[in-house]
Write a structure and sequence with these properties.
By secondary structure, the protein is an all-alpha fold. It has helices spanning 2-22, 27-36, 42-64, 73-89, 95-107, 111-140. It contains 6 helices and no strands. The radius of gyration is 20 Å and the shape is extended.
Length: 141
């Protein structure tokens, strides 16, 4: 009973926010734009997206090796995709916490150990972005 009540409340809240998001949107223009779109660009975009996620999964697998030596890249890939999906629908990059939670459920590892690897991963991402920005500044100057 309680879970179905939560589900209904969640649906109602989602519908309210969906309606609010559509306020002021001209749906005829949206449909026209969708009709003009070139959907062939989705193929290389999806390929590049999954290559990027694969690289991140391999990177995270390397960071997780001391904690979970038997975990494969496929399992890591699955958890990374779940975390990114959660980031798409939840605020404040909560998907990172979802990754730690899912990994603790699947492998029995502590959430703090998993979060530590995610923090290291984000530090590497930050350093990479600083490197890109520095390269762009040097190119512009």
């Amino acid at each position: 009973m309680f879970k179905s009540r939560q589900f209904i409340i969640g649906i109602v809240i989602s519908l309210i926010f969906f309606v609010v998001a559509l306020l002021g949107v001209h749906l005829d223009q949206v449909w026209a734009a969708l009709g003009r779109a070139n959907y062939l660009w989705l193929v290389p975009a999806l390929v590049l997206y999954f290559i990027g996620v694969g690289v991140r999964a391999v990177r995270w697998r390397i960071l997780l090796r001391p904690i979970i030596p038997e975990m494969g890249v496929k399992e890591t890939f699955d958890v990374v995709v779940i975390g990114y999906m959660a980031n798409d629908i939840l605020p404040a990059r909560i998907g990172e916490l979802v990754r730690a939670y899912i990994l603790s459920l699947r492998k029995g590892v502590t959430k703090t150990a998993t979060l530590a690897t995610i923090v290291v991963e984000r530090i590497f991402d930050g350093i990479t972005m600083i490197g890109f920005a520095a390269g762009a500044v040097l190119y512009i100057i």
